[in-house]
Amino acid sequence: MRSTLPHALLSLSITLALCHVTTAHADDIDAKVEKKVTALSGMNVDAQVPAAGTVDEQRLSAGVTTVMSKQEIDAVPTANIADVLSHLPGLSSYSDMHLGQAATGESEYVTIRGLDSSYNAYTLNGFALPETDSSTRAISLNMLAPFGIQSVKVSKTPTPDMPGDSIGGTIDMRTPTAFDFAGDTYAKSTAQGRMNDLAGHRGLPDKGGMFQQEVAHRFGASKQFGIYAAGYYGKYDNAAEAVAPNSQYTPIDPRQAKATDLSQAGPLQSSQYKYSVYTNRIKRYGGNVSLDWNGETTSLFARALYGAYDVQGEQNQMSARNQGTTQVLRGGYFNTRDIKEKTATLQLGGSSAADALTLDYGTSYGVGYRNVPDHVEASLYGAQTPGQFQFDLGNPTFPSLAGTPAALRNYVYNLSTDSFWKTQGGDAGSKDTRINAHVDGTYAFNDAAIESLKFGVAADTSKRNAYDHPFTHDDNNFVYGGPFFGGPNYPSSAPGGPSLADLPGRLVTRPFGGRYAGPFKLIDRQWVLDQAVPYKYLDDPNGAGNYTANDYNANTTSSRENIFAGYLMATFRVQDLTVTPGVRYELTDYSSTAWRSNGDDATGAFVGQGRRYGELLPGINLNYRPDELTVYRASLRRSFSRPAFGLISGQTTYSIDDISGQVVGISEPNPDLRPTTADNLDLSAEFYDRTGGLLTASAYYKRLSDFIYTSQSSTGNDSTLGGNVPTGTVLTGGVPVSMPENGGDAKIYGVEVALRKQFVTLPGIWSHLGVAGNLTVQHSSAHSGREDHPGSTWLPRAPERMYNADLFYHDDRLHADLIYNYTGLQLIGLNGNGLDYYLQPMKTLDFSATYDLPYGIGVGISVKNLLDHATFHETSGKSRRYLAYDPGADGAYVETGRVYMVNLSYTF
Fold first, then answer.
1. Quick one: signal sequence residues (predicted)?
2. Phi, psi (5° rounding) for residue 104?
3. Burial label, 776 (beta-carbon count in 10 A; 0-12, 13-18, 19+)
4. Is the confidence at residue 455, as pLDDT, over 90?
5. Is 560 helix (H, G, I), strand (E, B) or coil?
6. Residues 379/658, Cβ–Cβ less than 8 Å
7. Which distant-in-sequence residues (6+ apart) come within 8 Å of 737 by Cβ?
8. Nearest-angstrom CA–CA distance, 327 and 863
9. Taking the chain, what is the end-to-end CA distance rounded to the nearest angstrom?
10. What value does the CA radius of gyration of the chain take, rounded to a whole number of Å?
């Protein structure tokens, strides 16, 4: 059934398109319609060099392309460009909870047709961007606010003149220039106020705002010079609530206690659950400048961009634990969730024409940072008490203690039960310094058979560094009042610190909307930091031991990657058919160094490794244009994706249970990862009309080899853990070990349909109404090559359905959009126990409206997540029955609430 559904949808789409195109070609469009069209940002069917971000650019492109204009970007109420891009056909956005990022309510990464975000190529004005997260090739879009983006172009069938590491496609974000505006001088001031309703309802900081200033000016005798500058600053607070299991699932039936495939073991249970409240103070600021000169045969530009994203966040947690079969324990946990990301890039280049030859050239220098400074964790415990918690799973997204005896409920909700025990911490970060340059030439022929020949060379060098320094020897703990401070080594059952009730902090109003039947306290952040940060990197002869070179360097890596590329492509025209064959070659030279311990828990050395490989990437695009409003396309190409640096030579991290010292999770790199390669076939039909409407239908097929996925399996006893492991740590059988691996072969195929239509032929105000939408239906299968997954699975991050629906009203003054976004079920990672990790469908409904008053004043309101859906929902297995037990993520079901925004602008 699955295999026939995409074909049926494609047939239906083409049928609808043929019906639509009949009206699009009607010659009797009356004068009233023509008058309305002049008020639209419609297309100019005669354009040969289309403006960026217009429908013309999409229509006249050589491959399957989707563009997003500044007006469409502004219609999505968010401060994050990743959330904006998820409204394009076949695109989705996501964040995870391994650094609590999903608790901000914003997305960080973007996928094309559900392929992992690392399978995309990301550029800014055509230049490659530096990366900030060493664990992925994807660009963290936190730092790029939509305020400074003029348009976005997504190429799903890149031609050989585009980057070859683009199995999903390429995403090019363009910044404005002075020549993008109608007048010689343009200036606009924009202010926004915002409020997070979940934080407000919990009595937590909930407000913030943003200010942006844009200025553009063209000057010179013939207005050949242009300057554009923009800057923005935003700061706001939000809160989130999250629930997750705190122990692995086991069968309820004791006869199945030794089952290895839990998907076949019947009802399951977790003996522990954790409840977290996140608070975040988010700052996003930056700006961009563009200097341009347009001469008769030469144009030159200099562009600079700076973007910063700064989250100061905390997680406060209560855990309810069944300890064995006769005791229970209340646990308390706190950690900072700070992330500081910055990117800066300078781009220089131009274009020169001499007769039939045009040369485009440029170079860029960029730096990207991602730091997690002073990451401090704190634990609170007290004495165990007899009994067992009864977890009510009637609501699978919020396991409650409704069936637990009153005495045990009082024990777990009493803020005096736990006392402050210990802290630990570390500093982590990564940096990418990237330089690239390119020269492209296009030679135009007068011959009717061959239109042009295009060729080019490019070079890119990238230097990356990553580190994770624990505060203490072997990542041990600062026990409150313990050995480091001259006192005894207090156990968790009798901690030496003050009780949670006596710690500085504040109470949350009606936590979890009243479902949490007790007080919930947030500990003062600075008080916790003061227990650890002043003592980092110091020797502790009374407890943890002396701080060594192995402690500081164990998770430190550096790498260098040089990429050299060249391509040749030609464009042939036979009447209405255009054929563009070409070939690209990319040579990758990679080397890295990582710390290797000598095994004495003190010394070691940096050792190197490297790899050199080339990829030949042929491709061909065909475009048939029977008239100026219709395009049929076909594309066949080969592409690949390099493994991320952190996946090859990154750090090994451990999740360790406070009480038992047991390792409960290990995450490690894989130096043997190979690049993923793919063969891609795309077919599409596109129909446009003179009123700015369009209908497109596409079918695609991708066959991948050596795809990369995150796997989880179990390990046996091992006394040589490596890295930094606290003294007394225990490793026993069944510990989940996560690492990236190359799978076998995989394939993905599907169809996309997109529609946009304003009803300009209707009378009165109805002529300003319109609809837009897109639907992607696809199916993927992948063979991991793992013994515990002998059959096929889905490709990670490849949902079977994605769609958007937009109901809008646009006239000369009022622009209003109601936008619904749906991203279906996604596989996140494989698990050796038979319950793979899945992300449940994500749904958002957003509303925005702006009204232009006289004298250049504009006012607007926006609501993000109008229906108050969860922003992250990870499960063990495909169903919603079991929240995911993921040792690296503190939150399986995350709610962040609605966001209300008020906008005011002045254009002069």
1. 1-26
2. -80, -15
3. buried
4. yes
5. strand
6. yes
7. 665, 666, 667, 668, 712, 713, 714, 715
8. 47
9. 58
10. 29
CB 384 within 8 A of CB 321: no
Confidence of residue 98 (pLDDT cuts 50, 70, 90): confident
Query: Which of 728, 740, 544, 509 is closest to 641 using CA atoms?
Result: 740
The kind and range of the H/E element at 193 are: strand 185-196
Cβ atoms 556, 595 nearer than 8 A: yes
SS3 label, residue 372 = strand
Pairing of strands 185-196, 207-219: antiparallel
How many angstroms separate the CA atoms of 18 and 685, rounded?
10
DSSP calls for 53-115: TSHHHHHTSSS-EEEE-HHHHHTS--S-HHHHHTTSTTEEEE--SSSSGGGGT---EEEETTB
Phi, psi (degrees; rounded to nearest 5) at 38: -65, -20
Cα separation, 130 vs 146, in Å, equals 18
Out of 2.40.170.20, 2.40.50.140, 3.40.630.30, 2.130.10.10, the CATH code matching 4-170+177-601+611-907 is 2.40.170.20
Q: 827: which residues sit within 8 A by CB, 6+ positions away?
A: 793, 794, 795, 796, 797, 798, 836, 837, 838
List % helix, strand, coil for the chain (3-state, nearest 5): 15, 50, 35
pLDDT, one tens digit per residue, over 574-630 is: 999 999 999 999 999 999 888 887 777 888 889 888 889 999 999 999 999 999 999
Q: Which of 313, 310, 315, 336 is nearest to 242 (CA)?
A: 315
525-to-199, 373, 498, 521, 522 alpha-carbon distances in Å: 17, 14, 15, 12, 8
Distance CA 256, CA 260 (A): 9
Identify whether the C-beta of residue 377 lies closer than 8 Å to the C-beta of residue 334.
Answer: yes
Residues 6+ apart with CB under 8 A from 473: 539, 540, 544, 545, 546, 547, 548, 551
Check residues 866 and 720 and name the one with the higher pLDDT: 866
Left, alpha or beta for 897 (phi > 0: left; psi -120 to 50: alpha)? left
The answer to whether 872 and 889 have CB atoms below 8 angstroms apart is: no
Residues 812, 818: Cα–Cα separation, whole Å: 18
What the block records as the tokens of 605 is 């050395």
Q: Which two structure tokens, joined as six digits, stand for 368?
A: 């990207």
pLDDT in tens, 538-566: 998 887 789 999 889 988 889 899 999 99
DSSP strand E in 745-800: where? 745-758, 769-782
**What DSSP string describes 261-324?**
-GGGS-SEE-SEEEEEEEEEEEEEEEEEEEEEEE-SSEEEEEEEEEEEEEEEEEEEEEEEEEET
Task: Kindly report, residue by residue over 625-645, the tens digit of the pLDDT.
Answer: 999 999 999 999 999 988 877
Q: Which pTM was predicted?
A: 0.88
Could you tell me where the beta strands, DSSP code E, fall in 531-660?
557-574, 577-597, 604-627, 630-641, 653-656
- CA 101, 106, 112 angle in degrees (round to 5)? 100
User: Residue 112 carries which side chain, given as an amino acid letter?
Assistant: I
**pLDDT on residue 4:** 40
Distance between alpha carbon 323 and the CA centroid of its chain, in Å? 37
Q: Is a pLDDT exceeding 80 seen at residue 849?
A: yes
Give 489: exposed, middle or buried? Use CB within 10 Å, 0-12, 13-18, 19+.
middle
Sorting pLDDT into bands at 50, 70 and 90, what band is 100? confident
- Name the phi and psi angles at 513, rounded to 5: 60, 30
Locate tokens 């996946």: which residue?
Answer: 647
- CA distance linking residue 486 with residue 543, whole number of Å: 9
Comparison of pLDDT for 389 and 13, the residue scoring more: 389
The residues pairing with 435 across neighbouring beta strands, listed in sequence order, are: 365, 461
Residue 730 bridge partners (DSSP): 662
- DSSP category for residue 776: E
